[in-house]
Amino acid sequence: MRITVLGAGLVGNAIVKDLAKDRHIHVTAIDKDDTALLKLKGEPRVEGVQADVQASANLRSLVADSDLVVSAVPGVIGFDTVRKVIEAGKNLVDISFFKQDPFLLDELAKAKGVTVIVDCGVAPGLCNIIAGHVGTRLDGIHRYICYVGGLPRERRWPFEYKALFSPADVLEEYTRPARFVESGKEAVRPALSDVEVIDFPNLGTLEAFNTDGLRTLRKTLNAPFMKEKTLRYPGHADLMRVFRESGFLDATPIEIDGHAIAPISLTSRLLFEQWKLEEGEEDFTVMHLIIEGSKGKKRYRCTFDLLDTYDRETQTTSMARTTGYTCTTVARQVLGGLFTRTGMSPPEFIGRTEGCYQNLLEEYAKRDIRLTETITEL
Known about the structure:
Number of strands: 18
Strand content: 25-35%
Number of helices: 13
CATH superfamily of the largest domain: Dihydrodipicolinate Reductase, domain 2
Distance between the termini: 48 Å
Mean pLDDT: 94
Helix content: 25-40%
CATH architecture of the largest domain: 2-Layer Sandwich
Low-confidence stretches: none
Shape: globular
Number of domains: 2
């Protein structure tokens, strides 16, 4: 089997290494950054190719001999990259978290006869898979709320945050309005709003605020109340609101000394260096998912908790583990024929497919990722 991974950054690196553990899989990693590819040098069954996916007019040739493509590019180029891979007639698993509606490509994917799974990380990703699976066990879901975040283990002033995936996508989360479902209707709130404080065992106090994370669940999960909130150390939302409301995250260029510059470009340049994880810096991923529904005349609350930490042995960040290994598990499900649906599929379709959720738990266990489920009758 030949797999091409587009993007070899923090998460893409973990994806490449995990897939290459299978002796029957050869992985080609493509990235414009030679530094990212050098980190994969010497890995068995891995070939690095330096190329700019965004600039390449011939992505088709880059994936020509692939049995499957994985896209781990930044969200800003994610939709266009997915479209080009579909046009090349290749099955695809994507974690790029682009802002466009993936179902816009459904007709094209079906016409090409390919299987495409998008948003295949943690949130979106794992939480969607769980929602799809729980939906097969209950007669109906009434309430869905997900609290999720990835943070550095050590809090350092002034941000007490590091970007554990594409920093540009983090800023996108802070500017894009958050869409929810309340009383069966779509509701929209500003990102970073409705801050609440939550205490987590073994972690302490974190804050949760609105972000646009429901994604496809707004269309595919028939629940009257749905919401997702991002978790950070207390104070982060206020700080980021100051940046946003002061114009530092605006995309419209302004003139400075005769030069036109978008404020967000300058902000990104300054922040990204400070948000970069240092070598060996430890992080953790936390998720608390609540799904309430009914079975017959009884109502149940199903809670799912995840707390994952940096892997010191392999020097892999928790965010790369939880996002990357969700992606690689689904990739293997496609390669192995466990998931075969043609067209565009969000992760909840994986959860609804017999055998896929259990397989995910088994693969998680092999990698020491623990997901705890608690069921309470209401």
